[in-house]
Design goal:
CATH architecture: 3-Layer(aba) Sandwich
CATH superfamily: LCP protein
Distance between the termini: 91 Å
Number of strands: 14
Number of helices: 9
Helix content: 40-55%
Order of helices and strands: HEEEEEHEHEEEEHHHEHEEEHH
Strand content: 15-25%
Largest sheet: 6 strands, mixed
Amino acid sequence: MSFKKKLLIGTLVTFLLAAGGVTYYFFNLYQEAEKAVTESYQDLERGEHSEQREEEVDPSEDNISILFVGVDDSDTRQGTSSLADALVLATFNKDDLSVNMVSIPRDSYVDVSYQYSKDKINHTHGFGGLDETVSVVEDLLDVPVDYYVRLDFMAFVDTVDALGGVDFDVPYYLEETDSTDQGTVVIQPGEQTLNGEEALAMARTRQHDNDLERGNRQMEILESIIDQTLSFSSITRYNSLIQSIGDRMTTNISFDQLVSLHEYVTGNDGLEIEQHQLEGNDLWANDIYYFDLDERSISDISKELRSHLQIDSQYVEAKNEDDEDQGL
């Protein structure tokens, strides 16, 4: 056998072995991802779809909504007492590949099912669990919440670190407690890449502004996380992100739905993201601070989200008829 033939065969064998190794790696990674997401899966008590939907939606074909719930699971707030410290509802429109996000202030004064009087929306998770939080958001904005993603603080920190940080323009010098409430995070002002602890500090702080600005920062950071995720240049980064999920996330999005959603949002040049903020006024009742939401703001954003989901008015009409029949 000539030297050239031996070289050609050797090169071919090396290529096949390398290709096989890459295929095995991808298959292995796929299995790890499926296992992690499956272990994080937790359905809502309501069942497979919102009462505002006639049937379950398909992320690969339908416009959908996802409620992101950031939970404070610190040592003093474990289990059912965990507060929903961040609430962002995102609607996805498959036709124009756009996302509408609305931040719901944590102190919003809302109707709840576990007591006669209104309560802060961030208490709903602690007193009623995820179903209560989802139900309250649906009633407040009159849109279906198809899916949820619940993350605790450490999951958020690990996710940002797995992404290699997120880009953010820090508006001011900040000193904030870390995720353990034991240490201090110090951030200088200016454009920079924040690590997990720094991103969490920016998302949590209310030292220099209010809940509305806090909500805007949370949406900006979430948008940066989405951008970073969609711009991965290495499959190993996905592996790190998957491993960061661990047991710190729960969701009712199945692995197959997550895969179809990923293919949907990465199928073109990216997503167009628009941010919305609920307006309102400060309210004190029994020496407790609340944020009293403006009804016009709720109505305007509700219409925007329903239009973005391309939901017709049939549900609203049916709901109004039911209310009239019940004398409400």
